[in-house]
Amino acid sequence: MSTDTPDAPVPGAPSSETPSYGEPTSPRSPLPPTPDQAAPAPVSATGASATAPDGVRAQQGEWLTTAGGTPLAQTDHSLRAGRRGPVLLQDHHLREKTMHFDHERIPERVVHARGAAAHGTFRSYGAADGLTSAAFLAEGVETPVFVRFSTVLGSRGSADTVRDTRGFATKFYTSEGVFDLVGNNIPVFFIQDAIKFADVIHAGKPHPDREIPQAQSAHDTFWDFVSLHTEAQHHAIWNMSDRGIPRSYRTMEGFGVHTFRLVADDGSTRLVKFHWKPRAGVHSLVWEEAQLLAGLDPDFHRRDLADAIESGAFPSWQLGVQVMPDTPDQTFEGIDLLDPTKLVPEELAPVHLLGEMTLERNPTNYFAETEQVAFHVGHLVRGIDVTDDPLMAGRMFSYLDTQLTRLGGPNFEQIPINRPRCPVNDLLRDGHHQDAVHTGVAPYHPNSLDGGNPFPTPAERAFVETPAPVAAGEKVRGPHTSVDDHFSQTRMFWLSLTPVERRHVVDAYAFELGKCYEQVVKERQLACLARVDEELCRAVAVRLGLGRPDGEVAADVAPSPSLSQLGLRWPVAGRVVGVVVDVTIPLAPVLALRAALQAQGVRTLVIGPRGGVLVGTDGTELMTQRSLDTTRSVELDAVVVGAAPPPRPDLVPVEGAGLDPRLDLLLEEAWRHGKAIVGWGAGAAVLEPYDAQPGVLVTDSASDVAGPLLERLEQHRVWERLHPTG
């Protein structure tokens, strides 16, 4: 196995540039009783003792056991061959724990139940030559894809805009079989070992007694887990940042999370991390927008994706990899590449771009495609292999096992959305939902009755596991030896953010912890934040009405500017602009403005005082897409005002009030959320209360609007209005 690494970028790749809010209705002990303490009998809402018929309280005994009652010393680490070795298939506890978790709910997904998807095409740049033998990454190759975006915690009926991690799963239908890149919009994960996956999801899901809160992490069990398992602090701060509330699926980065191994034609190998870079840039909602949208339009993200594709503003991402040498210890610049709670800063390993994916077709049927699509980390192709990451090892089992419950049996890959687009000769037979009509009499190998078919594929065309060395050592259930640093990269993320982004992180922690009942949970999480940054901890503690705990801050690390979302300019295609008009102005200039914006890929929504067709003073007819009754600024990226619609009488309590309160609300929210506001003509007078504010522009005519508006849209928001010193 070669351990060579490129000394230069891959040839041919394009360049990249609070007090508690109340008391729980039933007691929750902050920590389990010690052996010399009697556990209090749980009390139901009616005051009755919550015991089973045989008098045994469920999961309230003293010792941890398997489902069969075998006592367990611990449940945090998978069984592996040595501290650094691969996870062993004989780990019966991992198998039992994961199997139970995978089959907890039917038929919706246990996690990632709320999703939206689209069809598209991946076009390779040919920049992976010498890195991998994967055919779909050869120059000029086009590969059909199906991509599903999702939230993690909520049920299918939850809202799109909750603060949560988002799934970003891509199914490549390659000529050599299906390759699934199953990742998230955050490059790190909560845990280092898959055996704790059920635990972190149980902690994040609604409390089992009340089934609330839905689709959010602002509750005791989540922060209890995160503050006790400090490896989760890095992922948690990403979720508390603006990354936890993306503006759109179209403006999310995607990450493979794990370290993969690429294998070239000559057998040489590299370790890589996969990245999806959105052409539209990485943009987020502000917290108030996310809250409003959860009530106004719980389907905001799925609607946005479908509408953009239908209007021709096709979202696109570039696929890239960070390339690192395949060394025996599988580390890079002191970073453990087998630890999924760590990232590699792009300043140390730049992202080499391999191709571009464009989504251009919406699903025909949500259930048949978006709901039944089944991803699997083990869907690999020649030239792409896995590493000894213990989280990845558990996912290799879990994804496949889950489909047995969700999709009714082992033949889920015959469902049309999951079918490979290449010949399949698998020797697998029968079972639930078998659709293939197999021929021949010898479904085994070797055979002589079916002419020997199918024969083994020649090694140069087959998927062959990389003959990587396995770490020697005793069979042990324990952590990796280098994964005890849980705060340095958490601090790096904080230091990499701009002032406005840091303020949003403080706001998020204060909100989330302020919704917790248990004081011990808040205090323990504050102790964790004290190890991340003194300023962050103090700001959150003040908001919670608590003192700042003592704690040694992690050693200073260099910031990574690539982790901030701000400071760049981005394409405007797919942005949404609302244009307010009425019948008191000529409408031909509005048509011209709409054409100018649409020429740049900007979607426009004409907003009138009512729905239907408006006829302007010049006789021009214009159909409205929205009325002031049905529009809030949260669905827009900017607002243009060309008229001052007269107030609707039933909405104006004071005689003589000049501005329709619906328009007033629209503008006030847009201003508060940092969006560009432009006015001309009668609309300019409407903007007088916002005169001279950053991002509020007044022009002489509609023909002068497009230029300055497009320039502001490139920055996504008027950040200086949200944080004047930022």
Short description:
With 726 residues, this protein is of the alpha+beta class.
Instruction: Name the beta content range.
Output: 15-25%
Q: Return residue spans where pLDDT drops below 50 for at least 5 consecutive residues.
A: 1-54
Number of domains: 3
Largest sheet, in brief, is: 10 strands, antiparallel
Shape: globular
Average pLDDT figure: 88
CATH superfamily of the largest domain: Catalase core domain
Q: In words, what does this structure look like?
A:
With 726 residues, this protein is an alpha+beta fold. The protein folds into three domains: 79-418, Catalase HpII,  Chain A, domain 1; 488-563, Catalase, four-helical domain (Hemocyanin, N-terminal domain); 576-722, 3-Layer(aba) Sandwich (Rossmann fold), CATH 3.40.50. It is built from 17 helices and 22 strands. The strands form five sheets. Strands 2, 3, 4, 5, 6, 7, 8, 9, 12 and 13 form a ten-stranded antiparallel β-sheet that branches. The protein has a six-stranded parallel β-sheet with strand order 19-16-15-20-21-22, sandwiched between helices. Strands 1-14 form a two-stranded antiparallel ribbon. Helix 2 runs antiparallel to helix 3. The radius of gyration is 28 Å and the shape is globular. The chain starts with 78 loop residues before the first strand and ends with a helix. The model is unreliable at 1-54 (pLDDT under 50). Heme binds at residues 109, 148, 197, 395, 399, 406.
